[in-house]
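User: I'll paste a sequence; please echo it back and then give the predicted structure.

Assistant: Echoing your sequence first, then the prediction.
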Amino acid sequence: MLIGDLNGIWDCSDCSSNRGMDRGSRAMRQYLDNLGMLSLPSSGFNYTWSNHCHGGNMVYSRIDRGVANEELWGLFPNTSIKLLPQSTSDHNPQVLHCFGKHVLSKRPFRFEAAWVEDQRSHWVVNQAWFNRSHPRPPYKTFG
């Protein structure tokens, strides 16, 4: 994974001017493509840098970004970048959000003592315990 100022645009839509991609941006993109790096999705702002010129000379670009390979995408499929507002820098700060495959439930499991009083609970436990089609039956795990 790489996050930061790559000092080049990913494609022509990453710049408010109509200059297109320069040679350095094309070389950077080719290099990252050869490494199998994919751009992380971002939210907050369309551009990450501004030249702070007033009037018709103002240019906005997205030269800061995060990239990751397929291995990271497999471990953290919901990874994204949140772009924050500029303050004293001409770049927007970036915050990485990584959320793995395992999402914790809002409520933890809680055993209810009343379940053992229900006549059907014994049948459910027996079915779960002795069901041989389960990928890892409990009698093989503990027996």
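The first strand starts at residue 2 and ends at 5. The helical segments are 23-34, 70-75, 119-130, 138-142.
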